[in-house]
Fold these 3 entries.
Entry 1:
Amino acid sequence: MRIPRYGGGRLWRRPGPITRGITLVTTAVALVAVVLTGVTAWYLVRTGAEAQQRDQLGRQAEVLSRTPALSELLLDREQRLAGSNGQQVAVVTPDGETVGPASAAVDDRTRTRLLGGRTVSAQASLDGTRVLLEGRPAPGGGAVVLTQPYLVVHDSVARMREALPLPLAVGLVGGGLAGLLLARRLSRPLTAAATTARRLAEGERGLRAAPGGPRELTDLTSALNVLDEALAHSENRQREFLLSVSHELRTPLTATLGYAEALADGVIGPEDLPMVGETLLSETRRLERFVRDLLDLAHLETDDFRVEPRPVDLDALVEKAGTVWAGRCARHGVVLRVERPGRPLTVETDGVRVRQIIDGLAENALRVTPAGAPLVLALAPDGDAARIQVRDGGPGLTPEDAAIAFERGTLHARYQGVRPVGTGLGLAIVHRLTQRLGGSVTARGRGPEGGACFTVRLPRRPGPTASPADRLTG
């Protein structure tokens, strides 16, 4: 027999592991509650039954103590009270004598309390039988004592106890059903979240987990939605980067392949060989530089990238960098200016990586700075950090450019064919290196010299560095 379907799904589905687990837990809690309730109820029933019998016996003793004729009649006839369930009576005379069938249950202490005008509510033994004893002093002196076998209490408890299993069973079944309903309510958004997570792992994007349930489950679905957006953004960035890399590799490969085929076919004369060789060397170096940048960037994305912090005098480091870049700037007709404190500025960092950052920014600036324009390498203390700036007199950046300057290949794709561009990875490498050193780097579209201004801020002491988990949306 096939199970009928409704609304695209089965009317009843076998509970999943989460539903079964929550149901078992809630049922176990209900069972414990039922057991504790049963124990408490039994104790209350037993106590209540005894109290009820004592109250009834006490009222009868009170009536007899105020009706001497009735008490004497009972004693003369040595009868039990009609319908009294084994009740027996004893009378304590004003002179302390005890008479009646229940005399053996009245001890000296009870007699003394009664003659002193106080009521007595106790247990006693009569003819080897445990009995309830209720004594009331008489207004004219003496007292009346009534006893009743304790078995009457047991009988009453047994009758009440027979009625307990049904409500306890109903409570247990109700607790189990409530647990099942609660489990289904809780497991539904959990199952939906697990399905969404599995589909995300399989590569689907654009999924939206519907929030629902308690706050924690709502937070979970919101986190899955944020993860979906982050993965989509990251994969789009990677796709664009791969397209940019493919385009960047195609140009030098095409030139190299064309000249190689021409050389193989012998169509290039001896007089053109120097020119062809220079072109092949230039394109090969371009490929080599691009591959090196790719490897550097990939290395920065891994956890085993090593940073060796030690005390570094940035003033001396910037001076050495200025000496090297002064020659390169002079060959391009660019005026290099170095601004530094002229005294030690010590920072605990990796000097090799700092020099790599400076070289990356300087190379990027020199590429766009026209002859006769300045290129500035500046160092200054900045509170508990050191500030390194690379400024140029080039065309600068728009505010939109500055916001995405450190994204891989974005400026390269935007300005290719418009202004000199590199591999499109240099600024991304600078950004990752700065993060690994615990610092920050920012870009400004216009600096004092009219061109772009890049500012690196390095703490005096090593701080937290960016982890690979931070790169999901980076």
Entry 2:
Amino acid sequence: MARDPRDFLLRLFSAAVDSADPAKAVARHLPDPPRGRVLVVGAGKSAAAMARAVEEAWPGVDLSGVVVTRYGHAVPTRRIEVIEAAHPVPDRNGAQAARRILDAVGGLGPEDLVLALISGGGSALMTAPVPGLTLDDKMRVNRLLLASGAPISVMNRVRRRLSAIKGGRLALAAAPARVVTLAISDVPGDDPLAIASGPTVHDPDAGADLSEVVRMLGPDLPEPARRLLLEAPEPLPAFGADYRLISTPMLALEAAAARARAEGATPLILGDAIEGEAAAAGQVMAGIARSAALHGQPVRGPAVLLSGGETTVTIGAAKPGRGGRNTEFLLAMALALDGTSIHALACDTDGIDGTEDAAGAIIAPDTLPRARAAGLDPAAVLAGHDSYSLFARLGDLVKTGPTLTNVNDFRAVYIP
């Protein structure tokens, strides 16, 4: 077994991220090249890396296209244009990219192929407001959603209602060309309609009642968005879809589990779809870890509890500090453990926890004593949503830079 729990947890995280490397996953799932043109489009934090993988796998195929990714996530490509835009709040580059993508897929024939490269972050990065809604309106809606604590499924339902490209509209714009989607999942349950809000997936829920969401977002919701969310839209025509999941959160957890076994620890995967408030999830995870350490249930050490999913952080009226859902999860967990001999890591596999420059952090039995010795009050820090600052002060942030993939959050709890 590894002597240093911190290094052990970091190796598990690396195994999870490596399993979702687009350079390895894309080529295995490509269709046969068509007789006609190949038009590559895409959106998400992995879109540029996926585009480069397509170029490398198909050196002799006549292809072109455009993809949009987050600032700092571009990689060199030769035939496919890469546009960078803002995430998680859209900007004008994202709106321009969406228009370019819709224009690119127009006028194709039945022998042509549209290869759609979709990954987490695509909802914000590929922004095409429906008629009657401005980009500024969509930006305001996104900020309200991010502060609301709404689960990602609710966020994406709102985004689909307000979009001219999501919820299958990209695939409809490409008809009669064949559309094949290669997707890296960053959502609990791997629902294709939820990954980047499903631009190539038929939305059977398009006419759902969103009045409760309107009430949740409150009086700051722009009036055009309020009206659109309350009106039932015309149903879109159904269509078939060739949708291929090439990397998922569960595959990443299984890769980390294999690495743990190789190093002499028993892995227990708790699930890839753990959601809810980050602080509450941290408290629950602490309870499971304490039971394992004290009673050998649900697993006896040396062991590691593995989980994925996407928690949320609800911001109240007070101005928050610097934080992220993974660092908030960890700080709440550390407070609940209160010195128990357990180490834990929680990181976003894209390398960016929320909007910060760290993937997440690591806690150890001495996290709280060191914080207090540094003059910090961990409970007050948690209440002020300033967890990033605490872990930065302690030197316990995990910084990877953009990983160019995204299979949601990764959590590993080591039981000695």
Entry 3:
Amino acid sequence: MRQPSITIIGAGFGGITMALELRRAGFTDITILEQGDGVGGVWRVNTYPGAACDVPSPLYSISSNPNPDWSRRFAEQSDILAYLRDVAARHDLLRLVRFGVTVTTAEFDERTNRWSVCTADDEVIESDVLVTAVGQLSRPSLPNIPGRETFAGSAFHSAEWNHDLNLSGERVAVIGTGASAIQFVPEIAPEVGRLTLFQRSAPWILPKPDCVYGDWHHRVFRTVPATLRGERFLTWAIFEILTVALVDTKWRGALAGVLARRHLERQVSDPALRAALTPDYEPGCKRMLLSDEYYPTLTRSNVDLVIASIDRIEPDGVRTVDGTLHPADVIIYGTGFAATEFLAPMTVRGRDGTSLDDAWSDGAHAYLGITTAGFPNLFMLYGPNTNLGSGSIVHMLESQARHIAGLVGWLAEHPGCAIEVDAGVERRFNDRVQRKLSDSVWSLCSNWYRTVSGKITNNWPGTVTAYRRRTRRPSRRDYRITGRPTGPADTPLAPGAADSHRSR
């Protein structure tokens, strides 16, 4: 059995999880390309004040690497980054990573059944297998507001926080009220002179059941590991129930809306402000957020909530459609990411030189969110339709990594060949996914899960349990092997091939 060479792009949760699974399966010819200067992915880049995960830490971690030393239930950015660095160091993964490498293009060579990756430094790296682990929330999105470039003060996206800028006493305009804004707004409000928050749509916010893990927690987690597994299981079960509410059982979603409204009523007494903070769309259509500090912050005397639409940005501030100029010294964009532009800005070309952009002209799609017909030996982590409206993406990444390791096992037994999903299998899978998504709560409003045309390309319309079951063992009926050194090309996998590489 020949060892296939494997290139992984990205050293965040996805890349680390993939490398661990490949190592566990016995594969050692692995190279990880990371454009940053360290591991961690979005948890290395997003350093804005208050940055934290909205999934409890015992679940938002790699199952084979539990952490008894989390500082709190909902870990902050520094804790998560330290965890990823520790996992990479303990498993000797750092020697696999090449830092400061930006991938610009990737092309499949049908003569050799290998991928050629070109970097920004014009280096070409070849391998049998290419795995992308670049995430969905890695490219900051700036709003197309007229006059944005004319602003005379400092301006930055929350994912590119300017830590050299002292906000003390400044007039700060925050554009956007998504997951990042509800974390950093409470942190900076006490120090700024005035904070003006521009809200396009109010988020649904639930209480955050956070707590600090003290020394006794850590002792119990270390001496009785079952307690950490128990909290992980309980959190997983709650999120599975919430997922069913979002996709199949609408009354449970309505119940979440009732809890969110009560949370708002308890924390905001002013009727006018409460009305402005009440969402006008179905609970769960956009990701429901968790915070106990956001609403109280908006009641501060130095905080203004503006619900009028922005007309343009001027050198001295932000002007709304009602003609009001809101003066600002600093603008912070909490406007999310280009989430539907998968793998951008890389150019990826498969069979016959077909670009992935052309193959995805009607919206990104992939079988199980992992692989697209016409692009052999290319596998994606956190690909199309694998995001969750409720739950831990790390759980999904582990399922994907196991599936990909199984496919790499087939390639090891068929040297020089390529594995490709059957086009009909992929089409039927995605048709079923889109039919189910069309009945989900995510189809009822504008959100970052949808393309301009309205197609939902990001979310998985089911539980993580259902996804894990679908990805547990690659089926030989779903894939074709091409480029066999002897015998006809483009033949189905031999009977039993799927079972020759053990899936864990």
